[in-house]
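Entry type: protein chain
Record version: 2
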Amino acid sequence: MNHSQYLQLSPEVEEAIRNGKPIVALESTIISHGMPYPQNVETALTCQRICRENGAVPATCAILGGKLCAGLTDEQIDYLGREGRNVVKASRRDLPLLCAKGMNGATTVAATMIIAAMAGIRVFATGGIGGVHRGAETTMDISADLEELAETPVCVVCAGAKSILDLGLTMEYLETKGVPVIGFGTDELPAFYTKKSGFSVPWRCDAPEELAAVIRAERALGYPGGMLVVNPIPDAYSMDPDVINKAIDEAIAEANRLGIKGKETTPFLLAKIKDLTDGSSLDSNIQLVYNNVRLAAQTAAAL
């Protein structure tokens, strides 16, 4: 399949692919929809720096002028940060339209996985994946990220599913879809802002080299999908579960009252939780992303 008319690699990423260097894909929804300016841009640039310090080339992904970009300039990242929610939050369903119309989009986990797979990038770092939303048994609100993990051969390193979700149902969905879920140094699913969720993960690895071996085996077996590595937030930034869960419950109640649905749900909840926790949730969010980028870069280097 020829993606070349829509796929655009930065010179650095193109050179890395040509010479077999380790590469880590990074998403851009965190820049446009996940954090306020200028922290969003500072975080994105720091993620790229951490990636390089740990032996990998960063490939921040976005749709710009209808092109699926893997690797952005500092200016392009700053543009996404300044434009914020004016940029389309792009998942799988949006990519053909954005390409055809020559528009811009910030990539979710699902869209970043698609661009990474097209470019031949096998490891991707993000904050937390989307999942099964609370009340999904009546709303059917299930993130496209989960389906993408079942279909697209990319290893996603995250801090678990965002704790605004139904974590039990999210794990059940991943099991049904046959997605390998691996705890890095843990037997328990981290809950984004906190290390503990009460839900166990089926497998555990304790070194990047182990993760690289699993990725190699999955590819050799010809699996169609990817795998999920859940990496707990560092102890110093892990939030008190009672504090964060109270804030999450309040934020969800407000979203329900205001009738907020679909792709607006997560940005609204994260912003509300930030306000309710006096900004400490944003600090935790930033630190867990850095932690995931570090592990993803070390895993890509081990590959």
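Comment: The first strand starts at residue 7 and ends at 9.
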